[in-house]
């Protein structure tokens, strides 16, 4: 199966901290590596992002994972504080509420997706501005089942009251996400790993093979390179992760 990335934060299936587009943006500001990165196929780039994410997750971090069953080390709670979250905010008079089963919120301007709202098991949606009677107002906190351009479908156990568009409604989302420093650390790990593992096509092919075997780093040299990185061979990665790393535990004693 070709390497593919899943960046659904806090899920049990996530295997990457950043997307291809985010990696391209980062490397576009690194002149001595951009051509190398740009010359790889998207499949090989995916494999490197998965590899870099696995490298980052070998560090021992402060705090604990945000969600039970979460595949990756981030999102993360440290001293009771979520280290990163997204807060899309959208206000419009084109928003209406439908007391269906499941309940839905609609927008005739079809702006929900472009405004950044997502469906996620850990996503909370705040509603403000409902002007229904006091006993049927829709102000409150809800959980999202799915998002389309013009419709947000809530989980079935949520309750809404029918309310036509016309009032200025504000929707605020809250979704755990990945700190930018962690994303940058993955990119620096990729740069370091590409240099250490080799720049020829055969090295990329072996990396691709290693990532494709059950999603694990299955080739010994790939895992060994991660161990060298975690052991302190790349200062830029550690410097980026320093706010989150346990001070007297630098690497997990785990098999690759």
Largest sheet: 8 strands, antiparallel
Which structural class do the helices and strands define? alpha+beta
How would you state the average pLDDT, rounded? 83
The separation of the N and C termini measures: 20 Å
Shape verdict: elongated
Overall number of structural domains: 2
What value does the Rg take, in angstroms? Answer: 21 Å
| Assembly of the depicted chains | single chain
Q: What proportion of the residues is helical, as a percent range? A: 25-40%
The helix-strand sequence is HHHEEEEEEEEEEEHHHH
Report the total helices: 7
Share of residues in strands: 15-25%
For the secondary structure, the number of strands is: 11
Low-confidence stretches: 248-256
What do you see in this structure?
The protein has 2 domains: 20-81 and 179-244, no CATH class; 85-176, Beta Barrel (Elongation Factor Tu (Ef-tu), domain 3). The protein is elongated and about 65 Å long. Mean pLDDT is 83; it is low at 248-256. The protein has 256 residues and is an alpha+beta fold. Helix content is 32%, strand content 18%. The strands form 2 sheets. Strands 4, 5, 6, 7, 8, 9, 10 and 11 form an 8-stranded antiparallel β-sheet that branches. A 3-stranded antiparallel β-sheet has the order 1-2-3, with no helix packed on it.
């Amino acid at each position: 199966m070709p390497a593919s990335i899943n960046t659904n934060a806090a899920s049990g299936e996530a295997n990457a901290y950043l997307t291809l587009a985010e990696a391209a943006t980062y490397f576009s500001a690194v002149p001595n590596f951009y051509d190398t990165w740009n010359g790889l196929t998207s499949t090989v780039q995916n494999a490197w992002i998965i590899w870099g994410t696995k490298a980052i997750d070998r560090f021992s971090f402060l705090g604990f994972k945000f969600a039970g069953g979460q595949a990756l080390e981030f999102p993360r709670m440290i001293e009771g504080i979520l280290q990163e979250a997204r807060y899309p905010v959208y206000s419009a008079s084109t928003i209406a509420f439908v007391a269906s089963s499941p309940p839905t919120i609609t927008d005739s301007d079809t702006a929900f997706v472009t405004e950044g709202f997502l469906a996620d098991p850990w996503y909370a949606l705040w509603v403000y501005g409902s002007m229904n009677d006091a006993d049927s107002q829709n102000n409150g906190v809800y959980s999202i089942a799915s998002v389309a351009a013009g419709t947000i479908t809530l989980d079935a156990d949520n309750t809404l009251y029918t309310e036509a568009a016309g009032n200025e409604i504000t929707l605020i989302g809250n979704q755990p996400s990945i700190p930018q420093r962690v994303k940058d650390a993955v990119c620096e790990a990729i740069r370091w790993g590409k240099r250490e593992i080799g720049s020829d096509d055969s090295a990329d092919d072996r990396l691709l093979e290693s990532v494709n075997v059950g999603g694990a780093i299955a080739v010994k040299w790939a895992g060994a390179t991660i161990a060298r990185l975690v052991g302190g061979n790349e200062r830029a990665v550690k410097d980026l992760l320093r706010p989150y790393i346990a001070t007297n535990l630098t690497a997990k004693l785990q098999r690759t």
